[in-house]
Specification:
heterodimer; A: mainly alpha; 12 helices; elongated; disordered N terminus; B: alpha/beta; 8-stranded mixed sheet; 4-stranded antiparallel sheet
Amino acid sequence: MSEQDPHDQPLDNMEASDGIRDEVRMDLSGGDVSATTAGGLWGTAGREIIRKKSAIVGMGMLSILLLLAAFAPIIAPYPPNEVLFDEGVSPRDPPCVHLFGCDEDTPQHILGIDGNGRDYFSRIVYGSRVSLLAAFAAVLFAVVWGTMVGLIAGFFGGWVDNVLMRVMDVLLSFPSLLLAIVVVTVLGPGLINAILAIAIVTIPQYARIVRSSVLSIREQEYVSADQALGVSRWRLLAHRIFPNTLTPLIVIATLGVATAVLEIASLSFLGLGIQPPTAEWGSMLAAERNQVFTAPHLVFFAGLMIMWNVLGFNLLGDGLRDAIDPRLGR
Amino acid sequence: MTTMSVGDPILEINGLETHFFTRDGVVKAVDGVDLTVGKGEILGLVGESGCGKSVTSMSVLRLIQNPGEIVGGSIRFHGEDLLHVSEKEMRAIRGDRISMIFQQPVGSLNPVFTAGSQISEVYEIHEGLKKKEGYARAVEMLRKVGIPDPEQRIKAYPHELSGGMAQRVMIAMALAAGPELLIADEPTTALDVTIQAQIIDLMREIRNDLGTSIIVITHDLGIVAEIADRVAVMYAGEIVEEADTKTLFAEPKHPYTRGLIGSIPLAGDRREWLDVIPGRVPNLIDLPGGCRFAPRCRAREEAGLTMCTEQRPELTGVNGEHTVRCFLYQEGAK
């Protein structure tokens, strides 16, 4: 501090207290350090997740699925669409595993043969690819659009907010599967259209979450502080407000993948989604649903995979929510 | 005296009126405020909560949100009326030439970014620097505001900083672009007393080293006494008294100022009763017709003045630069 400057002591009694204060400052600058060095925000969340059993189980289940999808050509013993009648199988053969005492003479098909003479295990494995891909694509599409709508509605407010959110309300007022069916009926069945349909149906969900976050973040003091520092509106929205909406968004999106998996399967089951002969769990279920008593394995395993997938994402989503949301648990 | 070295005025506020148009009526939060800040001067703006001091400062930066609106007056910054420049020019002024720090230091920092990235962003916006250069400057700035080990601290997130640290980071951000005027809105209210003293010292150093003019907004007269060259006391949207700090504390004129000073508890001094100002701040929608302080004013009754409830007093000089808005000091008051 410059001592000779007259500004330094606006009142006469300052002099005595200043010396004491300097000592205090030296003490505090050593002790006033509360920073935990590692990781930051995401690091903390990461450590928190590892402590959640449900998240770990969910991640485990999903890793198995991801491995199946990634290494499908290696894991699956046959191409998914190869008809194996030439190799001595008949339609809807029950599972045959040599290890469990199946006759060595019959070819091994661990989940049996479907109605068209294809190896069921291979189709299940390849089905994970379609299911994961479609679900991720649908959620990504919905998140991107939902976030944009929510950011704009929440940030600009007024009539913009009103118009956008009323459109979202209209979308929300239909049962989601029904709306998806309408969209597919208009666009025509197929993988891409099914993804679009499911995405459009879920956009309002993300728009609402983001909008409500924006409304509360907009009132935070750091937003005023940024404005006082000359940050422009668009930069404020993109660089300041948006990153703060990510936390709830990530949780909802993870849970949303589970829903999307289910809806893709439902659409395919109804014949509106992925079309045969592509291996997809929903359409595989649909194809063999009449044989549920004569060849239960052909329905059971496809259903099991859908459940496995949905459960995995739900567990992970719940764990993520507990880990990221400071208001719950801890 | 301290006011001697103060240079030409850089900010002149004249007749500023900022009103809020609410459902219940028009809230005249700022109603005809005149203020001048000289170069390198520290002006204290004092008053109770809700007297319009923060609205005054937000008006200077033109950050009044709906339903508020600046309805009258002028805010001249280096002679240029800020109320008539475009939003784009205003944005270039904010943070670059006039900047502001807030009451809640931790809440004023964005929780998802590190201290460093927030400071360096100021350089990116106002000086067009690259991220890396911005970081280097940010480290320098943190060192300047007295943060130990700035190379490490720059990577800290706001929740990892203590209140005092966060306020220093906030000050570093506000000073990054080298503003000529710093508005500090209750800069120490949320901090411990020892940290308060450090922040006050820091602000005084900033003025001395950089020549930055500072407006300190506070309800704490102790802070004003320590730091300000000149003090303006606000009550119900208007300035009621203005003087250099020493004069104001030695000879407070306005009954409100006297009440404020009388209600400060002194450390080590045990009194049966602290002086209190009776009543409360008037509703800013339905202001009393005459002097706004009249309903709470004991001096008026003692002096037997009746015009206080009918006429509005003007700010008049009592002794040189010392001005007061009170009939007690006007000739021929009844």
